[in-house]
Amino acid sequence: MQADIVTIFPDFFRGPLDYGITRRAQEMGLATIRVHDLRAFTHDRHRTVDDRPFGGGEGMVLKPEPLFECLDTMGLAAQAERVAGAVKQSVVLLSAQGRRFHQKVAAELALLDRIVLICGRYEGVDERVADYLADRELSIGDYVLSGGEMAAAVVVEAVLRLLPGAVGNEASTQQESFTVDASAKSAAGADSTCGSNGLLDYPHYTRPAEFRDMAVPQALLTGNHEEIRRWRRQRALEKTLRNRPDLLEGVALSREDKEFLETLRSAAEGDPSPR
Ligand code: SAH
After folding, report:
1. pLDDT in tens, 177-204
2. Taking Cα atoms as reference points, which of 244, 158, 160 lies closest to residue 199?
């Protein structure tokens, strides 16, 4: 996969994408990241990328010409072909007004050959970029950043770790929080039988088993795979109910799950204190 990032701060990306799995994916040749300096596509002495908003109001707006020119050099297929899925390319505008970026979108993008990420700044980007240059607008959450760079780094990191081969043990990316399509490889062992399937991940522990009077839950030390599976499933249900009850609606729950959630809910009625 190739990821092209368009920004007025190309140096921003020296660092965040050079660690861990993102770095490894690049070293292994699974992904190439190219950072494009938007100012290289201006033609005036001051290398101007922004201008005042039509209609008045606060702040400055990123001009369309340098962005269109920059993407013209990339040899991309036409927007209509990209949107129709005729080519495996997508041009993304990072925007607080975009659709919410989540794990499913990351998985969709991971199937493409090329993603282009346009980072806005100031009050935002001339809307013709959203309409005629980008295929989609993505927001990484309901808050306003000063620029799209952090958001682009988040998207690239979430996508690259899903490329086949990027993470040593591929099953591990199928068992995490938010992962719905866990075609959980059912090899032997407790680990492989508790894909999160839309729930938040279960808690993890490592050695020492006892640390400053804090003990690792007994169930994990039993070696009993069924007991471990049940314990993990219940903790995942508990945490999802507590922190993200909205996710439970999209989860396929077994009868055992439903009964467990019922006991949690009735216990909560007796003790309404939130955690
Ligand atoms: N006036 C805009 C905010 C502009 S912030 C508004 O109210 O919606 C400047 C730039 O930061 C945006 O163009 C976008 O590229 C980026 N940005 C800000 N918040 C973001 C978010 N939640 N997700 C993705 N990009 C964001």
Report:
1. 898 765 543 333 344 334 578 999 999 9
2. 244
